[in-house]
Amino acid sequence: MAKTFKNFIGGKWTEPLTGRYFQNRNPADTNDLIGRFPDSGAADVAAAVRSAQAGFEQWSRTPAPLRGEVLRRVGDLLVARKDEIADAMTREMGKVLAETRGDVQEGIDTAYYAATEGRRLFGRTVPSELRRKWAMTVRRPIGVCGLITPFNFPMAIPTWKAFPALLCGNSVVLKPSEDVPHTAHLLVEILLEAGVPPNVIQLVHGGEAAGKALVEHPGVPAISFTGSTVTGSAIGQVCGRMHKRLSLEMGGKNAIIVMDDADLDLAVDGVLWGAFGTTGQRCTATSRLIVHRKVHDKLVSRLVAAAGKLVLGDGRGARTQVGPLIHAAAREKVEYYLDPAVLQGAEVACGGSRPRGARTANGYFYRPTVVVGVKPGSRLATEEIFGPVLSVIRVGSYEHAAKVNNEVKYGLSSSIYTSDVNLAFRAMDDLQNGITYVNAPTIGAEAHLPFGGVKQTGNGHREGGWEVFDFYSETKVCYVDYSGVLQRAQLDTYDV
Ligand code: NAD
Fold this sequence. Notes:
Blueprint: E1 3-4, E2 7-9, E3 12-14, E4 21-26, E5 29-38, H1 42-59, H2 64-80, H3 82-93, H4 97-117, E6 125-127, E7 133-141, E8 144-148, H5 156-167, E9 171-175, H6 181-194, E10 201-203, H7 208-216, E11 222-226, H8 229-242, E12 245-249, E13 254-258, H9 264-276, E14 286-292, H10 293-309, H11 328-337, H12 340-343, E15 347-350, E16 369-372, H13 379-382, E17 389-395, H14 398-406, E18 410-411, E19 413-417, H15 421-430, E20 435-438, E21 454-455, H16 468-471, E22 473-481
Parallel strand pairs: 1-5, 8-9, 8-11, 9-10, 11-12, 13-14, 13-19, 14-17, 16-17, 19-20
Antiparallel strand pairs: 2-3, 4-5, 6-7, 7-22, 15-16, 18-21
Helix pairs in contact: 1-7, 2-4, 2-6, 3-4, 3-6, 4-5, 9-10
The structure holds nicotinamide-adenine-dinucleotide.
């Protein structure tokens, strides 16, 4: 019998007050039931926030270097349990083991980065314009942070949010994706084992109802969300009305540009990894290939040949290169975009159907698909599909390629393959994205650099690196006047 999991609220594992549960099944084999997880509601969220408010009182007073020590132990425990977690993650999310190990590794890197930040968390000391007056900034924690995460990086994204939030002295209510709750359960087990005080971390499982309740709770002053642009916009409206601090990381429609002077062997490998890694379900996945007409046919024929050979199956299989989509609706969305009415004259060069055979019969598999003749501005060229579909757009110049890259509403990641160093630098200037790669695909973010997108991908904040610590702390300015007289800034004259 499959296990029934609980929320972690008020310092203990608790059943949902709704009394309802949802099933978590393996997307590679829907007969495989992983467990039943709480389908929580507003009352569960309210209990979690009450507990997190108590936790904040204690944790915000714990010195930052000690908070960092706890996160270092979290990193050590993730190292020790890396393979076990990766296996569980592949079972519930579907991507291949090498990728789920990478997902855990990103959590490890984030933990160790946050641990060292405990001994920095710098403020600034700034000269005052007045004599015998001291001016400085310090970082203060904010309070209870509500974290809402998507399905595609079940460990990395919760850690990107939770670790800096905790390091800065906040308490956390985590509402993970209902598609990957088991990985979040394992993460919270590890946080507790490492010494995060029980009231400081709360885990509330569930879907939209639980997420909405967290966003709307007046006791949660900061929300960090990663997911679709539609959901992020709805959250943005609530947070704007309630004056909440909000970080949004949302959809993408990322492109690789391949110029006529590119190393095509390198480009083929990069496009395949960018487009079909994680079954195209990365926010940074390569969804468009913008290719110079002089190398178009050569590149497409090599891509089609290679894509057709990719091995589909359970991500835990030794030979598997591409796992399933996350659920039936995700596969139906892919199929919708490949309907002739939506293709608008573009042509499916490979893939375009579900695979046949017993190995993939019980999962949400779809063959890696390359579509050629896609027109800039068409739906296939501009909308996020979030599956193994690569849209190829032919261009005649770098200027045209940059224009096509930029004419979508998203702005997460971009890439250019070229051997012309001047063009590479022009692309770094011209491409309207938060991330640009040169001679590498659109995926491959590193934990110690800021991560995020422009336009409708984000709202100006960054995860990762040093910038994320700004989001999870308030800057407080302190002035100390030790002159013993009243000094009035801007009013008193300054004698040199
Ligand atoms: P989603 O928007 O469907 O769900 C994300 C989370 O929001 C889930 O936990 C869900 O339960 C919750 N949610 C749903 N409705 C809500 C509401 N009204 N209020 C509060 N919470 C709510 O996204 P998904 O399908 O899990 O993930 C795929 C999307 O995430 C893609 O669009 C992808 O581009 C995006 N993504 C972006 C980044 C990035 O960094 N830019 C990274 C990964 C994924």
